[in-house]
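Hello Y.,

Per our agreement to keep a running log of every chain we model this quarter, I'm adding this entry. I've kept the format consistent with earlier entries: sequence first, then predicted structure.
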Amino acid sequence: MVQLTRASAGEFTPDPSLLRAIASGARIPQLDELRGLALLMVVSYHSLGVLSSRNDLHGDIGVDVFLILSGFSLCIAPAPEGTWQFARRRLWRLVPSYWMALLLFLVGGHYVLRQDWGAGDIASHFLGVHGLLLNRPAYFLSINDSFWYVSILLLVYPAYYATRKVTSAVRLVALGAAGAVALALLYKLSRHDIGLWHVPLRFFSFFLGAAAARLLQFPRAAIHVSAWEVAALLALCFSAFRGLVVLAYPAAALGVCVLYCVLRGAWAGPRAGRAATGALAVVGSLSYELYLLHQPLMRDYAGHFIRVFSGTPGTANLVLGLVLGFAVCAALSVALRAASRRLQPGG
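Predicted structure for the entry above:
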């Protein structure tokens, strides 16, 4: 075992309001703002796809930002609850909005887009496991390309609960590395290429966020590195070298989070800065519903109605469709979020 001692936080100085919120146990506004930023990154990525533009900005890194924030928020302020209470709380947050969005696109797909799906595909979507079925790669992106994100959450939440008492940041990174390598091998051996691209690196992103939370909670803790942790990290590096796990995405997403928190204190003071952070926080508060809804509305349904009413999907029409699609998405997201809250116990 190797033991190192971490001194002070060095030159890295996060936004002081972030540290105060962590210390007091209050809601952390930066998390909602970063969720809003992540959502806008993903929307830009899909919008460029609709416009047949190159993915130079790599807005799909926003998904990794979501997973990092999820791991961070669960670890930074863990609720003292048992297994059933934890599962119920997380499922009540995920399932109502997801099922309503799923029903919306099943009905819309049948009556508007003239699309239908098999019973097994629909059942696996209602269970949220369609992204985890190694023998059904066709289910992964069917009905709605964004719904695989729910499968990831259903995978990482039990993993978090099993490791919630781990306080070592290095161990959490090693656990994420081991899980990512195992998932990569499973998807690779199953010839599930789309799952191989999406799932392992997002599992690692989640644990990267959890490790960041532990670093802020215990900034002066000694670092212990065991042999198995070194082996797990080396296996992850080898998997990245072999193209099984794309480490550039979690690394870039973590950089986005750190850079935002460092710079926020400098530009959040002026009126324009406060307006920007406030807008990001509003988007972030609806980010889950917006994520579930945005892609089909901005791509499939907008494109369908453009063809029906104008017949020519030119650039101007496509941009108009994207704007109108996102506006409809925002309105539906508010409705879904309100309905989800009413359905929750005590809502």
